[in-house]
Design brief:
This protein is mainly α. The chain contains 19 helices and six strands.
């Protein structure tokens, strides 16, 4: 426990403090991801803004998947959206605003714009170094493959130490996330319907097993769930926003003013708003962690940059659209009704103010869908990392899937913070190992972007 605590604090604790607004604590992960995001944004010439119309064009343009078992670029976006649009969009945003105030929302937006550039680079690299998948069909890939290519010049060598470390960190992280998923679901259903955790957990695990243990069922299920759940959540948030349109000038005024500490009396308010917004933005959209490239690599697209543009759009969709929906649902509710609340209770109370008891039920059901799709998505990510570590064997794939299902079951019955910390450590280590390769290899992704922009007409 002491070792785990020390590693966790090294990754997520304050590495140093900037003496502004009462002191802004900077963690190692923030110190790595923000400069990397700025660097990629400059190198891609403000890709999130400049290429946004092209992202939309690629999104609506359908391509043939070609190879049997391959998924399209849109399906890869749906898989990555399934893992991005999860508890972080609900519980994470609630936590950010609870601690950092409305100003945290502004810094989430800024972080998303930088994260989109990072997502483009890592997804394009994953496309460039993808391999055929003899087990599931189509293609596979992850940062482990391009890390291996960067550090290991011997083509005959099966493994590379840093690539192995990335793959193991990913598998560790996703087991931890499995526990967080089921624990949040069982708590929400107990609060909304008084359903005992054992019942909601058994149902969740049974449905998840029916999907992940069946070959190539994951993408088909996510194709249905993700558009419905994200679309319905978005429509409901738009209804609340339109209904409370008169309050919007005040809400946006608070977001901008409190983002820079202009209204707060507390000396540390600016630092709280900035760091909570930045952290929540980074954790929600996962840019730089190396998760989404596992889906991007599997896509059959006519040019690697297309996969990168789609994943960049995914970051914008996750943080600027879905996270903002959650923020508006909270900020447009009567603030006196939310006093002293935190976590899911706060969000469910806010929804109760807008829709009565149906709002509480809606949050529980939405969280279930978000969590279920997240679990399916992370098990899809795990495929390529298991293959890198253990080779193309069904025994290895099934073993990890069963371990993850067991963790899903255990997490629904009790919250083991030790395992949750392991999950946070896993994603922190993934990010470090990923960035070690992504930064020096980014020139290849930039070259792919330039080539695509020069040839996009002939690629249609």
């Amino acid at each position: 426990m002491g070792i785990i605590s020390a590693v966790y604090n090294f990754l997520w604790g304050d590495l140093f403090k900037i003496p502004i607004g009462g002191g802004i604590g900077i963690s190692l992960l923030v110190a790595l991801l923000i400069p990397a995001g700025l660097y990629f944004t400059v190198r891609t010439r403000l890709l999130p803004v400049r290429c946004f119309p092209e992202m939309l064009r690629v999104l609506i343009h359908r391509e043939s998947k070609g190879k049997s078992g391959a998924i399209s670029g849109i399906q890869a976006l749906i898989v990555s959206t399934a893992t991005r649009v999860g508890m972080g969009n609900m519980v994470g945003v609630v936590a950010a605003i609870s601690v950092g105030g409305p100003g945290a929302v502004f810094w989430m937006w800024v972080t998303a714009l930088m994260g989109a550039s990072t997502a483009f680079v890592e997804a394009t690299l994953a496309q460039l170094y993808k391999q055929t998948d003899p087990l599931f069909g189509g293609y596979r890939g992850s940062p482990a493959y391009y890390i291996h290519a960067f550090f290991c010049r011997d083509k005959q060598k099966r493994h590379c130490l840093i690539a192995v470390a990335f793959a193991l960190s990913g598998l560790l992280c996703w087991c931890g996330v499995s526990q967080v998923i089921s624990n949040s679901v069982s708590a929400a259903f107990q609060n909304a319907f008084s359903i005992p955790p054992i019942i909601s957990t058994v149902v969740l695990v049974a449905l998840a097993a029916a999907v992940v243990l069946r070959k190539n069922a994951s993408v088909k299920v996510l194709d249905v769930i993700v558009p419905i759940m994200a679309g319905f959540y978005f429509v409901l948030a738009i209804f609340v926003i339109v209904k409370n349109a008169a309050l919007l000038p005040d809400v946006f005024g608070r977001i901008v003013e409190e983002a820079f500490g202009l209204r707060q009396a507390a000396a540390g308010a600016f630092g709280g708003a900035l760091m909570n917004g930045v952290k929540r933005g980074l954790f929600s959209n996962e840019a730089g962690s190396g998760s989404a490239p596992c889906a991007a690599a599997a896509a059959k697209v006519s040019h690697p940059a297309k996969a990168g543009l789609l994943q960049a759009f995914g970051v914008i969709l996750d943080t600027i659209v879905i996270c903002t929906c959650t923020a508006m649902l909270m900020l447009l509710a009567p603030q006196e009704a939310l006093e002293g609340l935190s976590g899911m209770a706060l969000l469910q109370t806010a929804m109760g103010c807008h829709f009565g008891q149906w709002g509480v039920i809606f949050v529980a059901v939405t969280l279930w869908l978000f969590s279920f799709s997240t679990f399916i998505g992370i098990l899809y990510y795990a495929r390529s990392n298991v293959a890198y570590l253990f080779g193309d064997h069904w025994a290895a794939q099934r073993s990890y899937q069963i371990v993850a299902l067991v963790m899903l079951f255990i997490g629904g019955l009790a919250a083991y913070t030790f395992v949750w910390d392991l999950g946070d450590i896993g994603i922190g280590l993934m990010t470090i190992f990923n960035l070690i390769a992504v930064v020096p290899m980014s020139g290849q992704a930039i070259a792919a972007l330039k080539d695509y922009e020069a040839r996009k007409e002939e690629l249609e």
